[in-house]
Amino acid sequence: MKRNALRIVCNPISNNISYYFKNEIGEWCTLSDSSPLSRSSYKEASLEEKGSEIVKKIDEVYNRKDKGLDIIFEGEEKDYKLFEGYVKSLLSERNVTCVLGATKIIVAGKLGSGKTVLIEAMENLQKTKYKKEEFEEYYKYSDENNTEWYEIKGIDFGKENIANAHKTICRLVEKTSGMIVYCINSSTSRMEESEKAFIQDLIFSFPALAGMIVVTQCNDKKKISSFVDEIEKIANGIKVVPVLAQEFETDIENNGKMVVLKPFGLDKLASYIFEGK
Questions:
Q1: Claim to verify: residue 92 and residue 167 sit in the same structural domain
Q2: How many structural domains compose the chain?
Q3: Can you give the C-alpha Rg of the chain in angstroms?
């Protein structure tokens, strides 16, 4: 008898809670609007206030007839301990397991595409400190929220380099239930055919893993609009998010001061990574 599986992901920035259900072909899907857990009272509530009610609702909806349910909780360990306590006290006689997991994000892109700056900006947004580890083919960043970023070292678009990058991503995907973020620097204004082919290959190769394209260094709105349109044509429905990760001083003067553009797009990026929207 096949067991159901549910992921609970805590957004460390908005503090919202999101729920994902594993479908018949092994894909993690956001819950439909008809699911009781899609209500704001369960997504925007604190575990202290609603934890017991959430656990009861999960068992009622996703463990009918006690066929078995495996829950992966992605968030801070203290929140996991709280949630696990509710599971143990309320569902001790039920066929339910609960483990602590990590939200894992693979970040890829050409040299100079803004991968590191993007990750550092998310670190600042979360008001946390990432632990950075270097491996041969990637950097790993992790924090107390059990968020893990895997930055693939800059891809140089030669045939051998593309093959190596693809192998690295394949190995990471085997142990990842999160998403792939592909970065493109907007200052390039265009994509090489080899880069387009690489992105399309990622989309085709990992259909069960959520993906998004982040257009970095978006400091010129006129150029960005047409560039994003070009990317969306080859993205095959993959979400495309323009981002400015750091303040940018323009060459426009206003009242004797240079106009500075404020960072934007990071909240939208976090919402898609942690909440699937």
A1: no
A2: 2
A3: 20
Same domain for 87 and 149, yes or no, is no
Phi then psi for 124, rounded to 5 degrees? -65, -40
Look up the CATH number of the domain holding residue 266: 3.40.50.300
| Domain of residue 73, CATH code | 3.30.420
Band (83; pLDDT cuts 50, 70, 90): very high
State what percent of residues in the chain have pLDDT above 70.
96
Report the 10 Å Cβ neighbour count for 20: 21
CB 195 within 8 A of CB 215: no
Give the number of other CB atoms < 10 A from CB of residue 172.
21
209 or 91, higher pLDDT: 91
Q: In this predicted model, what pLDDT tens digit does every residue of 203-239 receive, in sequence order?
A: 777 766 778 899 999 988 777 888 888 888 877 778 8
